[in-house]
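Convert to structure. Protein one:
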Amino acid sequence: MSGFPEYEQYDGLGLAELVRNKEVAATYLVEEAVRRIEARNPPLNAVIHKMYDYARDVARGPLPEGPFAGVPFLLKDLVASCANEPFRKGCRFFADYVADHDSELVARYKASGVIILGKTNVPEFGLTPVTESELFGPCRNPWDRTRTPGGSSGGSAAAVAARMVPVAHGNDGGGSIRVPASCCGLFGLKPSRGRMPTGPDYGDIWLGFAAEHVLTRSVRDSAAMLDATSGPDVGVSYHAPAPARPFLEEVGQDPGKLRIAFTSKPFMGSTVHGDCLEGLEATVKLLEELGHEVVEAAPQIDRGAFVEAYVGAICGDVRADIEDAGEVIGRKPTPKDFEPGTWAFGLIGQQISSVESARHLRYLQARTREIGRFFEGYDVLLTPTLGTPPLEIGALGLKPSEALLLSLVNRLNAGVVLRAMRASDASTRATFDFIPYTPVFNVTGQPAMSVPLHWNTDGLPIGMHFAGRYGDEATLLRVAGQLEQARPWFERTAPAAATT
């Protein structure tokens, strides 16, 4: 036996079972993944660092006794460090930086048995919901290469959708797992705040907005990986409540009759595309057919105030990231080391006083309490994942005149000018028209997922977004499993996956 052409017919757990039963060798799975990366990655630009020699060595064994033993895997090049491998974060300031240790999450991935074949493309510092860094260039959507795979986990999503690997790492500070899951026709769950480890290098990431997990083709792979990697790590100051039973056991369980709220009104944007509304309408009908009580209702959110507080909080963190980068690299960062938008956000962050920062956080915490009270009356809230189908490459990029202005202001370090001009307003509006729903649940810390339930007439995926009560991933996974049975998506194949 010289290969395993049936590779794509299995999810991660399915491949691991074959390895465990000695029906296929992990070395064959690695070679199948390598073949697909080499054939399918060039036009997509999803994988930006290859670790084939490392993967082949690991595949020869012995393999750990984890649930994903022998399964090919890709690591997002952000937050999670992998010892002795480049760690660039989509940023040219880190172009030559190599990590000297595994993060706790990567250690848990390795213990789960996955075999890391490489690292995936990200926008600089994960700041945008599209994956188009100046360092590595745009990542493209396997369903339509003129479109974005979303961001910031766009490289991971594109690789899974193109069937290079069945599972890949992602993280989510404003939708960065759920957005690319929607764009690429995948399942993407953002766990509850405090569910996943962030040590030893981080405590809260983006004030606790960000969470780590994976993008998958099947619901059960996501649940099993949550079982394998979740839980408190050393030094953590808080963590999500332990589940009543393994998350994998929730998939396939009857969720019972749930009270599900839904809304088409955007929380942080201004419009919602008709394709997304069509998907929402079809999903409401499906949920009713499955026996759930579905009610049109939503928490009340002051769009302008919420966006101002959220963006203000992130700007402060971006400046801190830039300052920390200088310490790591060993020299003072300059505007030439970063993309204009990143540096500009950092300059605005410099202008935000400690009092303003505290008030932003207090505002967002108060809204979290209000949204929590809304969920006392509902088990789940349904919306579209995005406000539009996947955008065209470059749609959120700076116009030449904007880039020139930002470069001038950045060189002058004139953050006060940026604030006075409200220079980020136009790009902020366009961004939140694309992601009008997902960031809310990063702020609240609630679990939320994008489920691939709809495709438009152009053949582009349109994800549906479900948010649950804090700590209640179990209900979401039961619903996701029910929907996966009712409207299977596993066999849907992106055009880029046809390349052999």
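Protein two, convert as well:
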Amino acid sequence: MANRLKITLKKSPNGRIPKHTRILDALGLRKTNRTVCVPDNPQMQGMVRKITHLVSVERVEEKDA
């Protein structure tokens, strides 16, 4: 079983510092209320930790078929 993170953009990136907007672009979050699923690994957790004030995060367990 692989764990994934379900990340939803809750606040607009307009007017944020460039580092945060680059992180959102790297995650594929460009519009408010959009959701992406990414692997739960240290790299993604570090990115999410920097932008916790803009997103909501949910851990999802995925079953291997």
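The radius of gyration is 12 Å. The domain at 2-62 is CATH 3.30.1390.20 (Ribosomal Protein L30; Chain: A,).
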